[in-house]
Design a protein that fits this description.
- This protein is α/β, with parallel strands linked by helices and 354 residues long.
- Helix content is 46%, strand content 7%.
- The protein contains 16 helices and seven strands.
- A seven-stranded parallel β-sheet has the order 1-2-3-4-5-6-7, sandwiched between helices.
- α13 links the parallel β5 (259-261) and β6 (282-284).
């Protein structure tokens, strides 16, 4: 099926309107899966644009290419480069909570080589803007202030510093937040940008990584400022966080989050979310990659059935986009990825009549 890109589908969905069809939204598809899908290796932004178009997406997700020194590149940019996702790197690096950070003291803070926002590499977005197919937009963003703060300090030291050295936590979070806001102010002015996506894992399956009080004190003001930057540019603000967000979901919406991704199936009941907050926030995701999409754990017909059910229950009236529960990593079979796509196209035409 030849689906022409149209980023307005995504914008209407976020604003709880019905476009022509339910959007397909994946921010992370492993390059290995992309290569299999295209039947050739992908190199560079234009090849990844070709994949996005062929696979039926309405956007390409791109961030500026920069790193926080001493952190794995996959944590600093979300991907080894802003347009290429490596599952192997992600699995090895991004969730490590025992790695020591490069900043342990206030002295380390003063000597740390902080990124300079005016010097970050925005060439991936510039290149994409000159080659966007008709109807396709760029979704951009910055990495999480909370995640980078604890990574810079190291998670155990971060936790201890919350009581032993709160000044250090405050200075690091303020520095990281200021950098991310300055970078985003550059990105929202770039041609082709249609939305902002902010990724910051605040929780694991059972609950938050830190208390709501800590998030509200040091980190939520930065989410509010980032959302304000998007709003002032006329762009919707999408947030990604894995895990159980129930204790702070009302906070996030009040801060300016307009769409939530990926509603991890093990952590949150998407139907409860729809009932309680469905009029205030759009919902992206929840197709269970832990079981349905993973090769050997689910058949294509199982994936199709789950996509159909989510569309039937959640898409009428807008406010829902199809995506996996945490990203299409290399251990997802191509057959199941295609089942996700094709079911979205087959069942997602408005008005929904399933």
């Amino acid at each position: 099926m030849n689906i022409q890109p149209d980023f307005r589908r995504l914008l209407k969905t976020i604003h709880h309107e019905e476009p022509d069809r339910v959007p397909l939204v994946e921010f992370q598809v492993d390059t290995y899966i992309k290569n299999l899908f295209m039947g050739r290796p992908l190199h560079g932004v234009k090849d990844h644009l070709a994949f996005q178009t062929a696979a039926g997406f309405d956007f390409i997700y791109l961030r500026a290419d920069y790193e926080f020194a001493g952190l794995p590149a996959v944590v600093s940019t979300g991907t080894p480069r802003s347009w290429e996702f490596s599952a192997a790197a992600h699995e090895e690096e991004s969730v490590s909570t025992d790695r020591p950070g490069p900043v342990a003291t206030l002295g380390d803070f003063d000597t740390y080589a902080w990124p300079v926002p005016a010097s970050v590499d925005v060439s991936p977005l510039e290149e994409a803007a000159t080659a966007l197919p008709p109807g396709m937009g760029i979704i951009t963003g910055v990495g999480g202030v909370f995640t980078r703060t604890w990574m810079i300090l190291g998670y155990p030291h971060f936790c201890l510093s919350l009581t032993d050295s709160p000044e250090l936590v405050e200075r690091v979070s303020r520095q990281v937040g200021g950098i991310q806001c300055a970078v985003l102010r550059r990105l929202v002015r770039m041609p082709g940008v249609v939305a902002v996506w902010y990724g910051d894992d605040l929780a694991f399956t059972e609950g938050l990584l830190v208390s709501p009080k800590i998030l509200r004190r040091w980190f939520f003001p930065w989410i509010e400022e980032l959302a304000g930057i998007a709003r002032q540019a006329g762009l919707p603000f999408i947030m990604h966080s894995d895990g159980n967000l129930w204790p702070v979901l009302g906070d996030l919406i009040a801060l300016g989050v307009q769409a939530l991704h990926p509603v991890e199936p093990k952590a949150m009941d998407i139907y409860d979310l729809k009932r309680r907050y469905g009029e205030r926030v759009a919902i992206f995701g929840n197709i269970d990659m832990g079981y349905r999409l993973v090769s050997g754990e689910g058949r294509p017909q199982d994936v199709r059935a789950e996509v159909r059910q989510r569309i039937k229950d959640l898409a009428p009236g807008g406010g829902y986009a199809v995506a996996s529960g945490s990203g299409v990593t290399r251990y997802v079979s191509l057959e199941n990825f295609n089942a996700l796509r094709e079911a979205t196209f087959e069942y997602g035409a408005y008005p929904i009549r399933l």
